[in-house]
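Late entry, zinc ion complex.
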Amino acid sequence: MITIDLHTHTHYSHGANSPADMFAAAQTKGITLYGFSEHSPRPLGYDYPKEYREHLTQHMPDYAREVHDLQKQYPGQVLFGLETDWMDAEESFIRTAITAYPYDYLLGSVHFLGTWGFDADPADWANLSDEACAQHYSHYFTSLTRMIRSGFFQIAAHLDIIKIFSAERFHAWCNHSDNFEMVRTGLLALKENNMALEISSAGIRKLCKEIYPCPRILAAARDLNIPITFASDAHATQDVGRDFARLESYAKAFGYTQSVWYADKQWHSRSF
Ligand SMILES: [Zn+2]
Ligand SMILES: [Zn+2]
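Prediction complete; structure with ligand written out below:
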């Protein structure tokens, strides 16, 4: 059974619940090691339609304090992380964000191509040509590989989130070996940087209705012996540990029996 959830949010970004409520939900779902990975602050100009930048920036000290209080109250059960936005042009901003607190681990996520937050609005993708989609996929994997090679992060979050609103076209793109080579380059970079690959149930709740990453990518990761983590990406109590039975059989089908976690950036593993 999966007992670790390393990707979760709170009401300090655009989530619904407090750290204490999220942790309490985890305890009712058999999660014995709970990772908080609130969103990172973002520079001006990287905007979502429903923006929460000011709210998040203002409350980062509260986030840190409340997670630390839970760590004291429940020793060995709570990890303090950050889901960090990778933006190609913002390396020094990112460096400042990840060193602001002593995080146990950092998720690296690409949600922006240039300044476009591509995962917010399906309408952005509705009228794109196959060529335009292909350009976005290429851009995404180039940026993802840069994120990995930065050496800043422990875990690559939702590795194929770029499929979020165009899953069929994404899989057709992956079927061309030249394209998949771009994905494989990212996986090789993960291996070289001793990073883990996240298996996330969040995609099941999105338009693509699929686990991140897809079977083709997970098979290639397994061939490289890349370690995995499990994630719900919960933004509300009802999604903590969501669909973990499905994630467990998915990972086991590829031969995985252990997942990893990080305390003070040091990795540990646990059977599931
Ligand atoms: Zn994310
Ligand atoms: Zn997230």
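The mean pLDDT is 97. Will revisit in the morning.
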